Structures are given as C-alpha cells and as structure tokens.
Amino acid sequence: MSHFNVHEPKGMKGKLLKNMDIGTFQQTPPSYKPPKKMPNLPEEQPEFILKQICVKGLYRIHCMALKNGEQLWFCPTFIKGQTLYGWRYYRNRWIFLVIHLSKVQSIQCI
Length: 110
Prior knowledge:
Helices cover 13% and strands 35% of the residues.
C-alpha cells in the first residue's frame, strides 16, 4: 500500500480513519483569501502527480482546473484514496468540497 492512500489531518495521528465522520476533516476554512489572479496551469497532469501535489501541500491554497473547464481555488485538508476533501473559495467565502481526482485536470500549489 502506498503512503499516499490515507493522509491524516493534523491532530488525527494514530486514530482510525475509516469509521470517522467527514465532519472530522472539515476543520476550519483558511482565514485568508486567495490571490485575485489565477496562474497558468499545465494542460493535464496524471492522477498520481495530482495526489502528490495535494499531499505535499495540505492546508495550503492551490489553483485547480477541472476537466469540465472550471478553475477554482482549493485548500485540501484530507486525502483518502482518490478523494480530496477541503475548502473551495466560492463567491467571496470558503465552502467545504469533496472531489474525486478523476475530475481534476491540473493543480498548482501557490
């Protein structure tokens, strides 16, 4: 099993993750706003690269491009399997978002 399969959020080390409520991983949204301008993103990245970027950048803001053409600011707080949990900046506020890596085209940590 790869060490990228489950990444425990801060304060959760050693606790069973499979039986926990998703609310455990919401924690609190970032206390700051993302930059106004989105950076240029690569055309497409393989899922294992996307996952590595998110694991290394937990609790940091990322610019994310989805395969449907949408771009968004995202702050991952937890990763399990191929699913990202975290905060999306939408209409001037942070909202909790769960997204599967298969829907992500590219991502860049800022």
